[in-house]
């Protein structure tokens, strides 16, 4: 790069100085903080002197984004172009989709939540996956609305979604299906029909109503105790978390404290105002993991500290801040962290999370590294082959040694798997084979769930 420094005469240099002076005077005549004088000067300088015409909207949007970037806070974000806050954004039931919600971060899009029993869940996508491509086309810098529009499509058609998880990339090929917007689902535990399992995928506007209906339904079906599954739940609306927390607490008990930057606290207490008089007094356990965050942690902490309800699973995420969303004009919003929240006993769990009473890790099969390749064949070596061998071993297909080499035993196991699943039995792990492997593994992990077993056992005692 060549940098050319040109000494300027009074004309241009003087113009820059005058612009700054004018900005200062303008600031003094208004309620705009004087610290913004350089920003106004820069804006006027660029708009008046740049050698090309300038999009002023992009300039102001860029200035706002720059301010937020200095906060080093991933939860303070400027949302534009119909990308309204999606704390409760779900794919419409009138479209074919994959059952995942997308959120806008500072410089990327990521999976915010995944609804149960949907293509995204079955394929093995996870909360936090960074969205890169849809059907091979880059969407990483697009708006949420444009990315969602590409994922949606006719029910029964296939969509390929490429994500990044850690340092690995993977493409999930999924058939779109009609997606319901239920954030709460419930069924009796397969191992004990007196235990009702309630899963909350995210906290949004309909969550409280759906939760009440689910509890009533399970009671009628014979549930005498409950497991509340908050795993992979990234949070959502604080009001929904407060209502559900109140249902499990005695009236008058503190369910949440919110503290502003001056130390002033707002205390929320259980009562009819929050829960409308609906209470859950049955024995309960709460499932959490590393992606249980924010509103999930509010709920888990309140149930644990107020009603001695055990937490089962892995340490939670540790998001102890509160965001507010303000309108910034047409189709623009500013989501800003405004306070921190404390558990009923005053603990701030930010970056610490909640520690489970009954610690249960995900099985090794749930931690298999993503496969980058779209095809693996005999003779290949490396981490992708290792992941393939681990998946085959977990599914008990063939007799494979995990050695990172696509050897004869691996080829034979792949061929066996393909035959069993009515795929072309070539012995080469093509994209369809890898996708089917991921789906089968996801189904097995759902069925053989040691965390769920521990939680059911805890409430059945």
UniProtKB/TrEMBL annotation:
Keywords: Hydrolase, Protease, Serine protease. One of its GO terms (biological process) is signal transduction. InterPro entries: ClpP/crotonase-like_dom_sf, CtpA/B_N, PDZ, PDZ_sf, Peptidase_S41A, Peptidoglycan-bd-like, PGBD-like_sf, PGBDSf. Residues 76-152 form the PDZ domain. GO terms for cellular component: outer membrane-bounded periplasmic space. GO terms for molecular function: endopeptidase activity; serine-type peptidase activity. Belongs to the peptidase S41A family. This is Periplasmic protease. It comes from Lacticaseibacillus paracasei subsp. paracasei Lpp14.
């Amino acid at each position: 790069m060549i940098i050319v420094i040109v000494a300027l005469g009074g004309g241009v240099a003087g113009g820059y100085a005058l612009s700054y002076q004018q900005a200062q005077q303008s600031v003094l005549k208004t309620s705009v903080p004087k610290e913004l004088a350089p920003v106004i000067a820069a804006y006027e300088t660029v708009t008046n002197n740049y050698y090309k015409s300038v999009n002023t909207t992009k300039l102001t949007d860029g200035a706002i984004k720059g301010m937020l970037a200095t906060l080093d806070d991933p939860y303070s974000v400027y949302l534009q172009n119909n990308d309204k806050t999606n704390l409760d954004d779900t794919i419409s039931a009138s479209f074919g989709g994959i059952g995942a919600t997308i959120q806008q971060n500072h410089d990327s899009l990521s999976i915010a939540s995944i609804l149960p029993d949907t293509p995204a869940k079955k394929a093995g996508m996870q909360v936090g996956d960074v969205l890169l491509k849809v059907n091979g086309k880059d969407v990483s810098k697009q708006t949420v609305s444009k990315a969602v529009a590409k994922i949606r499509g006719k029910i029964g058609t296939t969509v390929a979604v490429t994500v990044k998880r850690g340092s690995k990339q993977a493409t999930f090929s999924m058939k779109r299906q009609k997606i319901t917007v239920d954030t709460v689902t419930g069924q009796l535990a397969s191992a004990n029909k007196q235990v009702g399992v309630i899963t909350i995928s995210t906290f949004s506007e309909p969550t409280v109503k759906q939760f009440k209906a689910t509890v009533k339904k399970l009671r009628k079906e014979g549930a005498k105790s409950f497991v509340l599954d908050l795993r992979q739940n990234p949070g959502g609306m604080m009001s929904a978390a407060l209502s559900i927390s109140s249902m499990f607490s005695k009236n008058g008990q503190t369910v949440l404290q919110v503290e502003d930057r001056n130390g002033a606290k707002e205390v929320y207490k259980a009562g009819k105002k929050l829960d409308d008089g609906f209470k859950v007094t049955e024995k309960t356990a709460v499932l959490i993991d590393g992606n249980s965050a924010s509103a999930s942690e509010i709920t888990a902490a309140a149930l644990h500290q107020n009603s001695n309800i055990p937490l089962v699973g892995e340490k939670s995420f540790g998001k102890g801040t509160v965001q507010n969303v303000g309108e910034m004009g047409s189709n623009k919003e500013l989501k800003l962290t405004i306070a921190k929240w404390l558990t009923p006993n005053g603990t701030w769990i930010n970056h610490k999370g909640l520690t489970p009473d009954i610690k249960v890790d995900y099985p090794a099969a749930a931690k298999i590294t993503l496969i980058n390749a779209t095809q693996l064949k005999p003779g290949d070596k490396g981490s992708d082959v290792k992941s393939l061998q681990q998946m085959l071993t977990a599914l008990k297909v063939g007799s494979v040694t995990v050695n990172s080499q696509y050897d004869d035993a691996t080829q034979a196991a792949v061929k066996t798997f393909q035959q069993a699943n009515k795929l072309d039995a070539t012995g080469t792990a093509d994209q369809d084979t890898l996708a089917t492997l991921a789906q089968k593994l996801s189904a097995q992990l759902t069925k053989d769930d040691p965390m769920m077993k521990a939680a059911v056992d805890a409430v059945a005692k």
